[in-house]
Amino acid sequence: MGALLVAGTTSDAGKSVLAAGICRWLARRGVRVAPFKAQNMSNNSAVTVEGGEIGRAQALQAAACGLAPSVRFNPVLLKPGGDRSSQVVVLGKAVGEVSAMSYRDRKRELSVIAQTALAELRSEFDVVICEGAGSPTEVNLRATDIANMGLARAANLPVIVVGDIDRGGVFAHLYGTLALLSPEDQALMAGFVVNKFRGDPALLEPGLRQLRAVTGRPVYGVLPWREDLWLDAEDSLSYVADGVIGRPAAPVGGQWLRVAVVRLPRISNATDVEALAGEPGVAVRFVTEPSRLTDADLVVLPGSKATVSDLDWLRRTGLADAVRLHAARGLPVLGICGGFQMLARTIDDVVESGVGEVPGLGLLDTAIGFAPDKTLTRPAGKALGQAVTGYEIHHGQVLRRPAELDGLIELSDGAVEGAVAGPVMGTHWHGLLENDGFRREFLRWAAGTAGRDGFTAAEGTSFAAARTAQLDLLGDLVEEHLDTEALLALIERGAPEGLRVLPPGAPPLD
Length: 510
Prior knowledge:
cobalamin biosynthesis, Rossmann fold, alpha/beta, Class_I_gatase-like, glutamine amidotransferase
């Protein structure tokens, strides 16, 4: 049939969820559809069937299509480790660190890789739904763009632009996105979608009519605001500091379990804790300063793309002492991946930070060393009496652990992964909390350790079912609120001929 590029007026305008919704809608119609994002920038990632690494949003979009994640769905992934440098992952494998300026020199090579991956997918699937990156009108970056109009021009993709009306200024955003493009780019921009609308649609219609009149392009639909769309957020920037995650149901027992997740500056795979936030009676909050830990039952140190740097931040903010005090009071602490590494006695890092050996928090009697090659696996084992699966993405390795230190996960060969010492638990596995049986046992352990005898772990909560329901909801929103016949025509035939070109300096909307 064809392909489509979903662009956005800004980051977090709704590109990822709209692309996932279109994928789900098409898959339910029996269309063989695949997702694609030429270049993603995110520290939330997933391990693919090939043993590579891609952005988590593309893994979710693959699930919407009924597919296992593949490196071809996101051939270039940038993982920021600092304000001016990122790790570059190409076809699933880390190939080095780059600065913003040095990355520009690699764009031609990476553009060829991305276009080749897209061409292969288009030859194998009926439809490929592509997602842009940021905004297509970053005019300072247009010459080296490989993910937005650069990709659209190279592959002759029709483009729709989604804007977030909840932020305000959506008409200016949509109009300005089109007006700032060159005539050649404008020729592929076929229309608009408004996202996160609350209120009476009749109040919006005059603005939609004027947008159509001044641009010559249709609005394919208006997606309503839905509070229940919060799982698998593409970027940790979507989380507000000291903000509550999800909307938990009331507790089954008489007490809530309060969970404080430290929002590290370079937090990675923040979605690990969403499975906790989906449990009745579990209140999960991101925190950035020590006072927020004083009333927490459980503290979680999540993953980090810059373990040593984020550990230094913990010390400078006073959070390191607060976490140690929490554990000293006998209250539970969970470290995941980079957070697990921070719990060690020492960390020797000549790979990410290059600083060598530094002291950890000393809450687990382990030593961590960073290896040049990244561990990328999708393992299975048994933890707290429950069968578990997960995925690993890390340079850090456990170099020393005493025999008397309990492991958290038992592997099939008799080896152990992770560690448990009193109220402190750590693991390199992402996705561990998505295992329903383990999560219930973990919550019982955490509540008992914290003295929350009135908390009862709910039976029957299924995180996989919650994720499936969200994907179906996205498909429903596309089917019910977009002009799907027009969308199908766009996918099949490409951008219409003779679309109006807005001249530079065109008058603004009234």
